[in-house]
Design a protein that fits this description.
219 residues, mainly alpha, 3-stranded mixed beta sheet, two-stranded antiparallel sheet, 9 helices, 5 strands, globular
Length: 219
């Protein structure tokens, strides 16, 4: 069993959670809760993986251990109300566009990006989206495999807080981690921001979501 020690008390995490619960229930906490977003592209260099992004995205065990160490760094160095350690398949925001069939690039020392030329070069290319297996295809399918493997690997890890409280890492692994920054962001990744922007001006009916759903069906 590998133990990752975190220099913060578990009681502190419980107090943070209590603060959030009060705020979400429209009750008055002791202060306004604060939550940050610090993605893997920022904390990987801080835990010594700045030149090993490709290893992180290519191996479930490495991904799990890096995420645990990354959240350890955040808890010990960033004052906030972050309180729940979560590990999940993480491909840094290219999961959705890859699942639609676009090609993605995984460099050794940087986060993934969408390859050029973009997937959708013309209006006619939209028809290919109707044949996409969005759940099992591309990185979404890989995420399902990573989740199962990360769950298995996590059985060999535990977290220990400064007050002696321990948390099995297997309880921290969840299947979800993807999501889009927004529909417009996804559209920009599929056809390029320039083309999408021009189409909003030149062909507003083409980018109207209601008309697109009627014309092309549910993707």
């Amino acid at each position: 069993m590998k133990t990752i020690r975190i220099d913060i008390t578990y009681r502190e995490l419980e107090q943070r959670e209590k603060r959030w619960r009060k705020a979400l229930a429209f009750q008055q906490p002791d202060r306004v809760p604060v939550l940050h977003y610090i993605g893997a592209r920022y904390w990987l260099p801080l835990i010594g993986f700045g030149e090993k992004f490709h290893r992180y995205t290519g191996d479930p065990r490495t991904m799990l251990e890096c995420q645990l160490l990354g959240q350890k760094w955040i808890l010990e160095h960033v004052k906030s109300d972050f309180h729940r350690i979560v590990a999940y398949p993480d491909f840094m925001w290219v999961e959705d566009v890859d699942a639609f069939g676009a090609r993605t690039v995984f460099p050794e020392n940087d986060s993934p990006w969408v390859a050029r030329p973009h997937l959708l070069q013309s209006d006619e290319d939209l028809s290919r989206l109707r044949r996409v297996d969005w759940v099992n295809g591309g990185l979404h399918g890989k995420m399902l495999r990573f989740y199962r493997e990360m769950k298995e690997v996590a059985a060999g890890f535990q977290l220990e807080f400064s007050d002696g409280q321990r948390l099995p890492a297997v309880d921290c692994v969840y299947p979800g981690g993807s999501g889009f920054i927004g529909i417009a962001g996804l559209a920009g990744d599929l056809c390029s921001v320039e083309k999408f922007s021009m189409d909003m001006y030149d062909k507003p009916e083409w980018v109207n979501m209601a008309e697109a759903a009627e014309r092309y069906g549910s993707f």
